[in-house]
Amino acid sequence: MNQKMKISGTALAKFALTLALTFGLSAPAGAVILNVNALMDGPQANAGAGTGSPGVGTMTGTFDTVSGQLSWSITWSGLIGAPAAMHFHGPALPNQNAGVQVSTGVVGPPVVGNTIISAPQATDLQAGLWYLNLHTSSFAGGEIRGQVSVSSPAPVPGPALLLVVPLMIAGGVALRLRTKRV
User: Is residue 155 over pLDDT 60?
Assistant: First the structure.
């Protein structure tokens, strides 16, 4: 028994609308992926007292506001001492010291890594209250340091946006079925 099932364009449109309302309205808001950066040097080290080091470094990375994932890639050159430890510290304004928030390791450069940070840490990070400090054998308190800055690119689309394409297809099919009957 071979029967063809006919679906009206109106029924298909209603089904598509039901899907959109069911899944689209219940979908979480899109995450925002923030860019994080730091330029490290000797003058910023030791709460701005400086070290006299010719060393410099850069950190580029991202922070996902929904998952709390902080990712980084860190490079440096020209250090006087051998790298011993590297950490994100905070909360602190420039020229202030603070405790360690996240250790990054020093095998590199580059040092590439990521971690999930807590909501209070995320608040401090986004407020610009974290700095990156590279400790060396010559400067146990840190040879180079840089305040972390945060900038906001465009929001990442949430799951609701993924319904747009199926809805467009369903609408096209409904229109095609409707025009075939006329």
Answer: no
